[in-house]
Write a structure and sequence with these properties.
- The protein is an alpha+beta fold.
- Helices cover 24% and strands 15% of the residues.
- 11% of the residues are buried.
- A hairpin with a 5-residue loop joins strand 3 and strand 4.
- The chain has a domain of 57 residues.
- It has a 4-stranded antiparallel sheet with strand order 1-2-3-4.
Amino acid sequence: MKPIRLPCPCCRQRVADIEIRLWKLGLGNEFSCEDCGTYFGAAEVEAMIAAWAPVLAWLRQAPAVPAPDAGDTTDTTPPPGRKE
């Protein structure tokens, strides 16, 4: 199977070549990162998602913030998939 481009929960590469090893399903090492050479399972991916879940839930509930003034260089670009 051809690797897919996804973030690696081990080396934290934003875009890494991840191989899905179907013959290892359920064994805890279903994936391998070609960038760092690490084998990992669904549990590591779920842990990475779980770590972000509270932040994402908070952001969904956060009130709108006024735009910064012209002197502020804070990046206010909305995250991908979110429309203003």
